[in-house]
Design brief:
The protein is an all-alpha fold. The protein has six helices and no strands. The radius of gyration is 24 Å and the shape is rod-shaped.
Length: 183
């Protein structure tokens, strides 16, 4: 009789532990999904700002069509990306194209002084900062989730139902190089 009670208690404890670990993994996965949706919302905000920025620059720098075209194509790639990995890659390309556009804008003093351009540039910079923060938050969520599904006992509960997730990585190795400052 005592053995049967001990066995039932042990089974109940194991079931509670399993459910607790399973729910923890699901919760961490949901946090990753939520963090990705935050990134997606900021990417959409950036995509909404770009047409206004491009049209403002066009008025001053019409002959910079190659740069404007690159921004437009990169924006379309972000909008058309269907997987988080593709969206990450397209977003990195768009960031590079926007950097080139802002460098072009430096060559036009009247454009730099335009209040609309200044506000758009401020909004875009603010959005880029939010995207950067959201990426860091997403990577933290992915790390926590991946740790939960790859460490014991979570790996037993996770099995193949909860695959590891991919965080944001640097794809442009030139950003790792120290900038050259000359006086």
């Amino acid at each position: 009789m005592t053995f049967a009670i001990a066995l039932v208690v042990l089974v109940v404890i194991l079931v509670i532990a399993y459910v607790s670990i399973y729910n923890g993994i699901v919760t961490k996965g949901n946090r990753c999904d939520n963090a990705w949706e935050t990134i997606d919302a900021q990417l959409q905000r950036r995509n909404d700002l770009i047409p206004n920025l491009v049209s403002t620059v066009k008025g001053y720098a019409a002959h910079e069509s190659e740069t404007l075209q690159a921004v437009t194509e990169a924006r379309a790639a972000v909008a058309g990306a269907s997987t988080p990995e593709a969206k990450m890659e397209a977003s990195n390309q768009l960031s590079g194209a926007l950097s080139r556009l802002l460098v072009v804008a430096e060559s036009y003093p009247d454009l730099k002084a335009n209040a609309n351009f200044q506000q758009l540039q401020t909004d875009l910079t603010d959005t880029e900062n939010k995207i950067s923060y959201a990426r860091m938050s997403y990577n933290d969520c992915v790390l926590e989730y991946n740790n939960a599904v790859t460490t014991f006992p979570g790996n037993i509960v996770a099995g193949s139902r909860f695959p590891k997730r991919q965080g944001f990585k640097v794809t442009d190795e030139t950003v790792r190089e120290a900038p050259k400052v000359e006086f």
